[in-house]
Amino acid sequence: MARIVMKFGGTSMAGTERIRRVAQLVKRQAERGDEVAVVVSAMAGDTDRLVNFCREANALYDPAEYDVVVAAGEQITAGLLAITLQALGCEARSWLGWQMPIHTDNAHAKARVGSIDSQELLASMQAGNIAVIPGFQGLTDDNRITTLGRGGSDTSAVAVAAAVKADRCDIYTDVDGVYTTDPRIVARARKLKAVTYEEMLELASVGSKVLQTRSVGLAMKEGVRIQVLSSFVDDSAPDADSIPGTMIVTDAELENSQVERQLITGIAHDKNEAKITLTRVPDRPGA
Ligand code: ASP
Ligand code: MG
Fold first, then answer.
1. Which of helix, strand or coil describes residue 178?
2. Using a 6 Å cutoff on CB, does residue 150 contact ligand 1?
3. Whole-angstrom Cα distance, residue 207 to residue 278?
4. Is 84 in the pocket of ligand 1 (CB under 6 A)?
5. Hey, how many other C-beta atoms are within 10 angstroms of the C-beta on 237?
6. 192 CB near ligand 1 (under 6 Å)
7. CA–CA separation, 1 and 73 (whole Å)
8. Are the beta carbons of 258 and 196 closer than 8 angstroms?
9. pTM for this one?
């Protein structure tokens, strides 16, 4: 028996059909006798839609109220997944950010997770109830809703995994792992069996969209074992415990598992950067 946190991104949660697929993957994990918590994103596109509503309402919106609006996307998918799991005969319930609660600072729209009160959650998981947790959201000390910044559900998943001391945090997405570079651009890109936290941190911070940068930093600090894998698989696919995706591991672990290490792990790119060269600037301090 293991304790597993499963996280599903926006494309995995986009619509009731996809959510049913997610529920089947969760059920399969729970049927192994594991204690399972699931962290979910909003349906793909929904958070953008909610952000736009705020902008339309007032370009100078109050960030605290923005958080109330954008946190709603994850509340919907969490409830829907719990309902779908119940339809498959599983015991499941949702745990909203304020219900646990997941404590954060009060930096609205980019809050940082402080601590998570996980005793009740853990007791429920141990009793065989699947916990469904909306990602991205938390609560300040004065009981205001916060969100963790775009892509923040990854950080929620890692924070929950650290709080319940999970054996593994499986991050399900629409690609089957971390590649040497973007496979949509470079046909020869290869899937990596493992990358180190430091390498993943670098890849994420220079444009790889697989994981939110902060989630990798938190996982490194808390020693959370992460696997990146695809939810777009059928029943014949190998199960998550056989590690079909990419593991994010410590330097020492990677050293032990590979005879010969790559000098360069991967190449990331970012289209939102430009280079400007100024010429004929006098080469002296202050210029
Ligand atoms: N729904 C949020 C976003 O789109 C958080 C997440 O999906 O990780 O940024
Ligand atoms: Mg994401």
1. coil
2. yes
3. 25
4. no
5. 15
6. no
7. 32
8. no
9. 0.92
Q: Which domains, from first to last, does the chain contain?
A: 3-257 (3.40.1160.10)
**Mutate-to-test residue for ligand 1 from 8, 150, 171, 228, highest number of ligand atoms within 8 A of CB:** 150
**What are the per-10-residue average pLDDT scores of the chain (287 residues)?**
97 97 97 97 98 98 98 98 98 97 98 96 97 98 98 98 98 93 89 94 83 95 96 91 96 78 78 89 88
Instruction: Spell out the residues 6+ positions from residue 262 whose beta carbon is closer than 8 angstroms to its own.
Output: none
- Residue 211, ligand 1, Cβ within 6 A: no
Distance 41 CA to ligand 2 centre (A): 8
Q: Give the atom of ligand 1 at the shortest distance from the alpha carbon of 153.
A: 8
Which H or E run includes 133? strand 130-134
Sorted by sequence, the CB contacts under 8 Å of residue 81 that are 6+ apart come out as 8, 13, 19, 22, 23, 26, 38, 40, 92, 94, 132
- Using CA atoms, how far apart are residues 79 and 197, in angstroms rounded to an integer? 32
Closest C-alpha to 79, from 5, 35, 133: 133
What is the rounded CA–CA span in Å between residue 226 and residue 161? 9
What span, in angstroms and rounded, lies between the C-alpha atoms of 96 and 120?
Answer: 13
- The residue behind tokens 């952000």 is 51
CB-based burial label for 245 (10 Å; 0-12, 13-18, 19+): buried
User: Exposure of 87 by Cβ count < 10 A (0-12 exposed, 13-18 middle, 19+ buried)?
Assistant: exposed
